Amino acid sequence: MNAWFGLAGGRVELFFAVVFGFVGLMSLLYSVISIRGKRAIAYFVFLMVLVGSSLGAVFSQNLVLVFVFWEIATFALWRMLSFRKTEQHLAWVWWIDFVASGLILAGLLTILLKEKTANIGQFKGISVSLVPALLVLIGILAKSVGLPLHIWLSKRYKDAPAGVGALVSGIVGNIGVVLFFKLFLTVHVPNSLMTISAILALVLSIVAGGVAMRSNTMRGILTCSTISQSGFIFLGLSMLSFYGILGGITYVFAYAVANAGLFFSMGLVEDATGTGEIRRLGGGARKAPVLATATAMLGFSIIGLPPFLGFFARLGIVFGAVDEGILLGIGAILAIFLSLVDLVRLYTMVFLGDGPSNEWRPVNWFLVGIVVLMALVSLAGGFFAFLPIRFLGPGIS
């Protein structure tokens, strides 16, 4: 019984827990002000269930329980998405999640039936064949909102509260990173699997960056950014090198905090202007200069500009990619460039220019303060980047 329900954590697990807890707390504070109506209580209950189940996945030492906790988090997310949508509209999202979960479960059961254990501690040193490992990998990428791009994204984020967008990008999608780390960095897998993983992750990152260029809504650009950054994280982990893994896990922190902050910021812009169409926006920096400054800082961290934490994390992933092959290194740099173009375009269209800035209504200063706090955390993470790097190092090596 202890082996089945055992919860334990090392340095990496504690790191994930801090990231998930912080994003969850910020989403809770943001939603307390922004969520109203008869279903608000249910919304907050499922928010707590989502955060709690994500922490369960982080600390669980049983692969089946990691999967179960992820399913609980997904169900809670589905109920939160229905806050502004009909369940019929969400059916497509649910079916994609169902198929992805089926792939993961099929792969895990194949592995567990062969090894006759689900305890992660007993998986060290064993070899896993390509087919079940590939099923788990594809399921993780799909469930982490990576596949299929254009269908998955628009359905999941359209009209969702900003707090939900932050939870998806900051927590739910990253549970896949937790499962990837616990399984594929514990067992021996064929080299071809990590090659496939790296290529898929890089293609997702680049394609998502390209799709964002065709989007004319804030949510569309941010959802593509979510996929691009998620793919970049999986690229780092797929390297199986110290710098690649360290960069990937560190970037979870940089991306989760900054991307959640951007969702909050864009939610405030939508509330202030009544639209998410970037062609109908502009001049926001004159109406909300503090929000504009904080948003720029968050974007800098995601892009990977110094001295923000994202710079050091991305640098580690690029080093790991170059070490594996020059083409992967070039692809990683291209993915970063596309992120730069997408977020600069988003910021320029929303906050700069001569758009209809007179249509901006006053923004809630408490919510702006949350965005500012997340921007400052991103900046402080860069100045003190040696702390997470030093903390994670022993847990990775």
From TrEMBL:
<dbReference type="Pfam" id="PF00361">
    <property type="entry name" value="Proton_antipo_M"/>
</dbReference>
<feature type="transmembrane region" description="Helical">
    <location>
        <begin position="160"/>
        <end position="181"/>
    </location>
</feature>
<protein>
    <recommendedName>
        <fullName>NADH:quinone oxidoreductase/Mrp antiporter transmembrane domain-containing protein</fullName>
    </recommendedName>
</protein>
<keyword id="KW-0472">Membrane</keyword>
<feature type="domain" description="NADH:quinone oxidoreductase/Mrp antiporter transmembrane">
    <location>
        <begin position="60"/>
        <end position="337"/>
    </location>
</feature>
<dbReference type="GO" id="GO:0005886">
    <property type="term" value="C:plasma membrane"/>
</dbReference>
<feature type="transmembrane region" description="Helical">
    <location>
        <begin position="220"/>
        <end position="243"/>
    </location>
</feature>
<dbReference type="InterPro" id="IPR001750">
    <property type="entry name" value="ND/Mrp_TM"/>
</dbReference>
<keyword id="KW-0812">Transmembrane</keyword>
<feature type="transmembrane region" description="Helical">
    <location>
        <begin position="93"/>
        <end position="113"/>
    </location>
</feature>
<dbReference type="InterPro" id="IPR050586">
    <property type="entry name" value="CPA3_Na-H_Antiporter_D"/>
</dbReference>
<feature type="transmembrane region" description="Helical">
    <location>
        <begin position="40"/>
        <end position="57"/>
    </location>
</feature>
<feature type="transmembrane region" description="Helical">
    <location>
        <begin position="325"/>
        <end position="344"/>
    </location>
</feature>
<feature type="transmembrane region" description="Helical">
    <location>
        <begin position="290"/>
        <end position="313"/>
    </location>
</feature>
<feature type="transmembrane region" description="Helical">
    <location>
        <begin position="193"/>
        <end position="213"/>
    </location>
</feature>
<feature type="transmembrane region" description="Helical">
    <location>
        <begin position="14"/>
        <end position="33"/>
    </location>
</feature>
<comment type="similarity">
    <text>Belongs to the CPA3 antiporters (TC 2.A.63) subunit D family.</text>
</comment>
<feature type="transmembrane region" description="Helical">
    <location>
        <begin position="133"/>
        <end position="153"/>
    </location>
</feature>
<feature type="transmembrane region" description="Helical">
    <location>
        <begin position="63"/>
        <end position="81"/>
    </location>
</feature>
<keyword id="KW-1003">Cell membrane</keyword>
<feature type="transmembrane region" description="Helical">
    <location>
        <begin position="365"/>
        <end position="387"/>
    </location>
</feature>
<keyword id="KW-1133">Transmembrane helix</keyword>
